[in-house]
């Protein structure tokens, strides 16, 4: 059976796995973004706190994904829980680091001007600092998403959702008629999803970042 014949005969399952993969990455990125920006906001004013947050994220990223998921299984069980936990943890570093860099890069004169017209600390943060720090934060989100697309495939080891199941089935049945087709279908699906998400982020950037800041 050729690759395209295999895709045609399995299109329903492949579409379901693709949707689950995209959904898992998207939901984990939402959580990682909220947590990462919150950590950045809490630590960017302190040199040691910012360095500690980045170091902690970097340490998590050095743990092999298969090992982390294996360590989570006794705690969270199989399925969605270890997948979500691992993906959120792996997605934090680029967002935290870029949030800190972006917030520290805001011109202090602009913050002082906002303070001078009576803006509260929260208003300065949400109306001045975070909007100006948004471009590097968005870059961090894009990097995290690309990483999580590949890492999410490893979640099939813990019975997680997504295209990793197709890849693992192919690897476990190497030598059979459709083993290569299964691996290829899962891999190409992840690549297409990664490109689609990145294109969406480019569009979001064009819609949310003023042209002067992009320049």
Radius of gyration: 20 Å
Q: What form results from the Cα inertia axes? A: elongated
- Please count the beta strands (DSSP E, at least 2 residues each): 0
Q: What is the SS-derived class?
A: mainly alpha
Mean pLDDT: 89
Poorly predicted parts: none
Strand percentage lies at under 5%
In short:
The chain has helices at residues 3-9, 11-43, 47-62, 65-76, 80-104, 108-116, 121-154, 164-172, 179-208, 211-214. The chain is mainly alpha-helical.
Descriptive notes:
- The chain has helices at residues 3-9, 11-43, 47-62, 65-76, 80-104, 108-116, 121-154, 164-172, 179-208, 211-214.
- The protein is mainly α.
- The longest helix has 34 residues, at 121-154.
Give the arrangement of secondary structure elements.
Layout: H1 3-9, H2 11-43, H3 47-62, H4 65-76, H5 80-104, H6 108-116, H7 121-154, H8 164-172, H9 179-208, H10 211-214
Helix pairs in contact: 2-3, 2-5, 2-7, 2-9, 3-5, 4-5, 5-7, 6-7, 7-9, 8-9
How would you describe this structure in keywords?
mainly alpha, 83% helix, 10 helices, 215 residues, single chain
């Amino acid at each position: 059976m050729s690759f395209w014949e295999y895709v045609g005969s399995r299109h329903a399952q492949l579409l379901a796995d693709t949707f689950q993969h995209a959904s898992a990455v998207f939901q984990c990125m939402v959580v990682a973004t909220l947590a990462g920006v919150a950590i950045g906001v809490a630590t960017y004013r302190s040199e040691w706190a910012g360095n500690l947050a980045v170091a902690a994220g970097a340490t998590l990223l050095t743990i092999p994904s298969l090992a982390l998921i294996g360590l989570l299984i006794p705690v969270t069980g199989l399925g969605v829980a270890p997948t979500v936990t691992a993906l959120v943890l792996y997605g934090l570093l680029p967002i935290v680091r870029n949030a800190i860099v972006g917030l520290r890069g805001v011109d202090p004169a602009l913050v002082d001007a906002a303070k001078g017209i009576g803006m509260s600390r929260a208003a300065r943060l949400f109306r001045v600092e975070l909007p100006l720090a948004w471009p590097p934060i968005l870059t961090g989100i894009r990097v995290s998403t690309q990483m999580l697309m590949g890492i999410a495939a490893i979640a099939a080891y813990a019975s997680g959702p997504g295209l990793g199941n197709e890849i693992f089935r192919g690897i476990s049945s190497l030598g059979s008629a459709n083993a290569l087709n299964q691996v290829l279908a899962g891999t190409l699906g992840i690549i297409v999803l990664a490109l689609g998400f990145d294109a969406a982020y480019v569009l979001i950037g064009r819609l949310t970042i003023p042209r002067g800041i992009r320049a």
